[in-house]
Design goal:
The structure is a single chain. By secondary structure, this protein is α/β, with parallel strands linked by helices. It has two domains: 29-115, Leucine Dehydrogenase, chain A, domain 1 (Rossmann fold), CATH 3.40.50; 140-269, Rossmann fold (3-Layer(aba) Sandwich). 39% of the residues lie in helices and 17% in strands. It has ten helices and eleven strands. The protein has helices at residues 8-28, 44-59, 75-87, 106-112, 124-131, 140-151, 171-179, 198-202, 251-254, 268-286, and strands at 4-5, 34-40, 63-69, 93-96, 160-164, 187-191, 207-210, 228-231, 235-239, 242-246, 260-261. The strands form three sheets. Strands 1-11-8-7-5-6 form a six-stranded parallel beta sheet. Strands 3-2-4 form a three-stranded parallel beta sheet, with helices on both faces. A two-stranded antiparallel ribbon has the order 9-10. Strand 9 and strand 10 (242-246) form a beta hairpin. It is globular. The protein starts with a strand and ends with a helix. The relative contact order is 0.17.
C-alpha cells in the first residue's frame, strides 16, 4: 500500500488563499485584523513559533505586535498587560505563548483574556461553546486537523477516530470536534496514559490522532492496515550526534501500512499557525455582526 502524505504546507496554502477575500472585505470597512502575542522569557521553541506567526501575518497584510516580558515578570504585571490588551481596539486576538514560568498561574492568565479575543480557544466560555456543539473559537491545532482532513477529502462520517492524549489543547477538543455532526460525525475513543491495553483501541482506528508528546511512540504494531494517521507530536531528539525533529509516530515503521499520514515537520505544525490567522480574522468579522 502506498501511504499518502498529507502536507500541511499544501493545506495551509489553500486556507490562506480562501482568507484573502475575507481580509479584503474587512479592510474595505477600515478593519485590519490584529493579533497581540505575549511572550514571556526566551523559550527557543516559543521564539520560533512567534517568529513564524509574525512572518505569516505580515505577509497577509495583517497587524501583529509581540509583547516581550522578562522571565522574572510578576503575575500581576502580566495580568495588567492582558487587561490593557483586552481594551485595545487594534487587537482582535490575544495569544499568550505557553509555557509560562512556574511562578505564574497559566490558567489564571488565560482566563483573563476576554473570551471574544481568545483566538487560542482556551477560555472556559469558548471551551464550553465547543462542548455543546456551538463553537466560537476552536483551538488552533484541533481545528487544523479537521481542515487538513477535509482538504484531502478524508470523510470522518461513520469512521472510528481514536485519539491518544487528553490535553485541553489538542486531545480533548479534537475528540469533541470529530464527534460533532456538522464537522466530523465520527465515533470517537479518547485514550490516555491511564488506558489499559492501548493497542486494543488504537488498532481499531480508521483515523488515529497521536498527541501524547512521546517521540515515535506509535509504530506499526499500534495500527491496522489502511488507517489514516495524524501526528501532532513535535519532539526534538538526538540521533547520530545531530538534533532532529520527530513526531509521536514512527513514520518509517508505518509507511506502506497506513493509507495516509501527516509528516513531521510540515504536517500539523503549519496548520496551527494557519488556524491562528483564521481565528483572528473571524474575531474581526464578529465585530460586524
Amino acid at each position: 500500500m502506498e501511504t499518502a502524505i498529507l502536507s500541511g504546507l499544501d493545506a495551509s496554502k489553500a486556507l490562506y488563499q480562501s482568507l484573502e477575500e475575507r481580509i479584503a472585505r474587512l479592510k474595505d470597512q477600515n478593519i485590519t485584523p490584529g493579533l497581540a502575542a505575549v511572550l514571556v522569557g526566551n523559550n527557543p521553541a516559543s521564539e520560533i513559533y512567534v517568529k513564524n506567526k509574525t512572518k505569516k501575518f505580515e505577509a497577509l497584510g495583517l497587524k501583529t505586535d509581540v509583547f516581550r516580558l522578562e522571565e522574572s515578570v510578576s503575575e500581576d504585571e502580566l495580568l495588567s498587560l492582558i487587561l490593557d490588551l483586552n481594551k485595545n481596539a487594534d487587537f482582535h486576538g490575544i495569544l499568550v505563548q505557553l509555557p509560562l514560568p512556574k511562578h505564574i498561574n497559566s490558567e489564571k492568565v488565560l482566563n483573563a483574556i476576554v473570551s471574544t479575543k481568545d483566538v487560542d480557544g482556551f477560555h472556559p466560555e469558548n471551551a464550553g461553546l465547543l462542548s455543546i456543539g456551538k463553537p466560537r473559537f476552536i483551538p488552533c491545532t484541533p481545528k487544523g486537523i479537521i481542515f487538513i482532513l477535509k482538504h484531502f477529502k478524508i470523510d470522518l462520517t461513520g469512521k472510528h477516530v481514536v485519539v491518544i492524549g487528553r490535553s485541553n489543547i489538542v486531545g480533548r477538543p479534537i475528540s469533541i470536534l470529530a464527534s460533532l455532526k456538522d464537522l466530523g460525525n465520527a465515533t470517537v475513543t479518547l485514550c490516555h496514559s491511564g488506558t489499559k491495553d492501548l493497542k486494543y483501541f488504537s488498532k481499531q482506528a480508521d483515523v488515529l490522532v497521536a498527541a501524547l508528546g512521546s517521540p515515535e511512540f506509535v509504530d506499526a504494531s499500534y495500527i491496522k492496515e489502511g488507517a489514516c494517521l495524524i501526528d501532532v507530536g513535535i519532539n526534538r531528539v538526538e540521533q547520530d550526534g545531530k538534533s532532529k525533529i520527530v513526531g509521536d509516530i514512527n513514520q518509517e515503521s508505518v509507511s506502506g501500512i497506513a493509507s495516509a499520514l501527516t509528516p513531521v515537520p510540515k504536517g500539523i505544525g503549519p496548520m496551527t499557525i494557519a488556524m491562528l490567522v483564521e481565528n483572528t480574522v473571524l474575531s474581526a468579522e464578529l465585530l460586524l455582526n
